[in-house]
Amino acid sequence: MFKMDITDIQFNKISSLKEFGFEGFCSIADLMADKIKVPCQRGNYVLFTPKGFDLEFRQEGAGGFFKGKNPNVEIASLVQNWIEESRVVYIGQAGGILKGKWSNSTLNERLCAYMKFGQGWSVAHWGGRLIWQINNCKDLRVCRISWLGQIKDPRKVETELLAHFDKQFYRLPFANLRH
Q1: Residue 11 gets which letter from DSSP?
Q2: What span, in angstroms and rounded, lies between the C-alpha atoms of 140 and 135?
Q3: Cα–Cα dist 21/31, whole Å
Q4: What is the C-alpha to C-alpha distance for residues 155 and 162, in angstroms, rounded to an integer?
Q5: Residue from 174, 148, 144 nearest 162 by CA
């Protein structure tokens, strides 16, 4: 059971994520150094800016080229996607029902792949790639919620979080490029 309703989350207040049940708040740099902090369970994760975050974009990001595709976009697109009023910049999921079957993907696996992608590896984590074009992206924060012992579909929760975000800001978070 959620500690509060998804529709109560305010994406410009990190305390709201904590109240919902997200935990493990750390920087991307800390997560890259110690991936053990993330459980091997299905769930959802959120990337957000710390207070006083100094935003600067770079033309060439740290993200890896996957299947020969360039993950970088023009700076004008980054500026257009940025939502100044929101601290949340990306919402992701691990596990869930895909084509009628539960995916075995875990938070540890998904976030590990995401961190590897951000270190230039050719890894299948195309979603959220805009993060890696932020100059000080390793200062961004990550939190997660696991659904161990609960029959929650992280894909459905992600869809609900994105829909609620869209209702607040009339678009998706910075690095979520589609539902």
Answers
A1: T
A2: 10
A3: 19
A4: 11
A5: 174
**How far is residue 165's CA from residue 91's CA, in Å, rounded to a whole number?**
10
CA neighbours closer than 13 Å in the CB half-sphere of residue 148? 9
- The pTM score is 0.92
Task: Specify whether the backbone of 95 is left (phi greater than 0), alpha (psi in -120 to 50) or beta.
Answer: left
Residue pair 54/136 in contact (Cβ under 8 Å)? The answer is yes
Burial category of 94 from C-beta neighbours within 10 Å (exposed 0-12, middle 13-18, buried 19 and up): buried
Q: Which amino acid is it at 128?
A: G
Radius of gyration of the chain (CA): 15
Mark 125-152 as b/e (b = at least 16 C-beta within 10 Å).
bebbbbbbbbeebbebbbbbbbbeeeeb
Domain chopping of the chain, boundaries: 21-169
pLDDT tens per residue across all 179 residues of the chain: 456 789 999 999 999 999 999 999 999 999 999 877 788 899 999 999 999 999 999 999 999 898 889 999 999 999 999 999 999 999 999 987 767 777 788 999 999 999 999 999 988 888 889 999 999 999 999 999 998 777 788 999 999 999 999 999 999 999 998 74
